[in-house]
Amino acid sequence: MYKVQFEGQEMVIRFPQDLVDNDALSQFLGHINLRSILRKSAFSNSADCLDKMRRLENIPHGAAILRDPYLNKGTAFTKEERELLGLNGLLPPRVHTMEAQVMRILENLRKIENDLDKYVYLNSLSDRNKTLYYRVLMENIEELMPVVYTPTVGQACQEYAHIFRRSRGIYISAEDKGRVADVLRNWPQKDVRLIVVTDGERILGLGDLGADGMGIPVGKLALYSACAGIHPSLSLPVTIDVGTENKELLEDPLYFGLTQNRLRGDAYDELLEEFVVAVQQVFPRCLIQFEDFSNANAFRLLDKYRDEVLCFNDDIQGTAAVALACIYSALRYTGGSMADQKFLFLGAGEAGMGAANLIVSALVDEGVSEEKARQCCWFVDSKGLVVKSRNNLNAHKREFAHDHAPASSLLEAVESVRPTAIIGVSGQGKMFTKEILERMADYNEKPIVFPLSNPTTKAECTAEDACQWTDGRAVFASGSPFKPFTYAGEKRFPAQGNNVYIFPGVGMGCMACWSRKVTDEMFLAAARVLSGLVTPEEQKQGMLLPPLTRIREVSLEIASAVAEVAYDQGLATHPRPSSLETHIASLMYIPTYMDYVGSQDCDKGEPVK
Ligand SMILES: NC(=O)C1=CN([C@@H]2O[C@H](COP(=O)(O)OP(=O)(O)OC[C@H]3O[C@@H](n4cnc5c(N)ncnc54)[C@H](OP(=O)(O)O)[C@@H]3O)[C@@H](O)[C@H]2O)C=CC1
Ligand SMILES: CC(=O)C(=O)O
Ligand SMILES: [Mg+2]
C-alpha cells in the first residue's frame, strides 16, 4: 500500500505485492497513467519511485523532448518511456534499437552522391539527435571525417549562407563591443569548457570567408567529441565577425556576416581582449582554441594570451605536432637522424613556422644546438627562398634565414638546397610539380613529401602523383585525406598529416587535469606519443600514423601524456589521480542513450568537470 499526496489530498494506492520491484512498479504507474499524479505527489515509502519521479520531473515531456537534440532518442524511446513522457502517438509505434537507427542513417547517407549534401544531412541529424550523430560519426570515422571536416567543410564554409538550415554556435560581431559577456551568456549550456574560435580570415587555404568560417569551429568541436570524447554539451563554437575583405561575400545578398571591411588595429584588439576576458568570467576554466586566424593576428594573439589564459593556436601548435610526428615516423623508413635532415617548407606562415619551431625544440631536446637545429629548416615564401640577403623579413622568418644565394622559385630552391623533405604549407595547390618531385627523387633514396595544405584543392600534390613521380619512393603525408591506392602491386596508405590527430587529445589532456596553460612541451609530447603509436604491423604497411579508426585510443594516449606534462610543469590544478589514463578514459563521452525511467543511466562516461 502506498500513500500518495496529490494536490493536497492524500490518496492510497494498493499495489499487488509482486509489483513492488522497480520495473513492475513503473510499468504499473505507466499503465494507470499516473504521470500527472506523480508530478505532484510524494511517495512516502518508495525511494526508487521518488528517484524516478525526480528524474522525470527534470526532463522535458512530449514534443519538447523530441526537439531537444541532447535528450531525443527518436524511435528508440521505449514503450515505458513513451508512456511516462507523453510520447504515445508522437512516434511510429515500433521501438527501434540504436543499431537499427544507425543502419537507417547510413543507408540514407550512402545514397547521397554529393559530399556537401551529406554534410547537410549529417548536420540535420546533429540538430535532431546528438547521441545518434556521434554514434554514427564515431563508428564510421574514416568514411565520415572527410564529410564533417576537410575537404567538405571547406566547401561548406564557402557556401555556408546558401546551405544554411539552422544557426550554430555563438557569433560575436563588432557591434557587440561592450556586451560580449552578455552575448556569451545567451548560450543555452551554462557549463562550457572548450571554445574553438575563428574570425574567419584564413579558413583552411581558402582565404577570408568572414562569418561563414563558422563551419570550422563547428567541425573541429564535433571531432573533439568523436575523437577525444569531450561531451558535446561542454563545447562552444564561436565566430568573431569583424567584417570581411571578401568582395564576393560582401555582394552576396545571402551572406550572414557584417557587410563591412574588417576591423583592424586597436578596435580589433579591443574586441578580442573583451572576448578573452568575457570567457574567463562566463565560463571559468574554459580552454580557448584559436583557429584559422590570419597570420598577422594568429601569432600576436598567441603571444599575448598563451601565458595569461588556457589557450593555444591549432594552426601553429597543433599542426606542428602532427608534422613532427609524421617526420619521426618517416625517419623509420628513410633512415638517418633528425639532425641530418634538410626540411624545406613551402610557406613560411603559421603552419610552417609552428612546425619548424617544434622541430628545433625537438632537436634541442636531443642535445643539438639551437643554431644547428635552425639550420635544418629552410623556407620558401611567396617571394622565394628565405635568405639573409632579403630585406623586410619578419622576425619569425629572420630566425630561419640562411646565408645562402637567393632562389626565386621552389624548383630553384630544391635544386640549390637539396632538401631531404619538402613540406607544403602554402595554401597553394599543385606547387609540388612533376619536375620538383623528380628532383627530390634524384637527391634522395626516399624523399619525404608532405603536402599539408587544405582542403584537397590546395594540396601541393596528390598522393598518387607523389608516388608516380618518385618511382614509388616518396614517404607521404597530406593535410586532407587521399584514399589508399595500389602502386606496382603494393597497397599504399597515404597518411593524413592533419592536426585532428593532435588537438582533441591536447584539449582533453588539459581539461582533465585543469591545466592553467597549454605549453609547447605538451605538443612535443603529443608528437612523440603519436608517432610511437604506429604499430609494427602498421609500419610494415608503410604507415606514418595510426589509422583514424584508432583515433579514440590515440587521443586518450595523447591526453594522458599532455596531462603528465601539465603535472610535471606544475600547471595542473586537479588533484592527481592514481592513473591518468584511467581517469581520462572515465571522462570520455560514449554516445549511448539515457534510460529515462530505469534506475541506471545508460550514458556511460560523465562529462569532464
Ligand atoms: N595539415 C594541417 O593540419 C594544417 C594545414 N594547414 C594548411 O596550411 C596552409 C597555410 O596555412 P598557414 O600557415 O596558417 O597560412 P599563412 O597565411 O600563415 O602562411 C601561408 C604561407 O604561404 C606562403 N605562400 C603563399 N603563396 C605562396 C606561393 N605562391 N609560393 C610560396 N609560398 C607562398 C606565404 O608567403 P608570405 O609569407 O610571403 O606571404 C606564407 O608564408 C593552409 O592551406 C592550411 O590549410 C594549416 C594548419 C593545419
Ligand atoms: C587543418 C587546419 O587546421 C587548417 O587547415 O587550417
Ligand atoms: Mg586551421
Automatic annotation (TrEMBL):
A divalent metal cation binds at residues 291-292, 315. SMART domains: malic, Malic_M. The keyword Cell division does not apply. Divalent metal cations. Prefers magnesium or manganese. Pfam families: malic, Malic_M. (S)-malate binds at residues 202, 454, 498. GO terms for molecular function: malate dehydrogenase (decarboxylating) (NADP+) activity; metal ion binding; NAD binding. It comes from the Bacteria. Gene3D superfamilies: Malic enzyme, N-terminal domain, NAD(P)-binding Rossmann-like Domain. Its EC number is 1.1.1.40. InterPro entries: Aminoacid_DH-like_N_sf, Malic_enzyme_CS, Malic_N_dom, Malic_N_dom_sf, Malic_NAD-bd, Malic_OxRdtase, NAD(P)-bd_dom_sf. Keywords: Metal-binding, Oxidoreductase. Coiled coil: none annotated. Residues 126-306 form the Malic enzyme N-terminal domain. The active site is at residues 149, 220. It is an enzyme of class 1 (oxidoreductase). GO terms for biological process: malate metabolic process. Residues 316-567 form the Malic enzyme NAD-binding domain. Belongs to the malic enzymes family. This is Malic enzyme. It comes from Desulfatibacillum aliphaticivorans. The lineage of its organism: Bacteria, Pseudomonadati, Thermodesulfobacteriota, Desulfobacteria, Desulfobacterales.
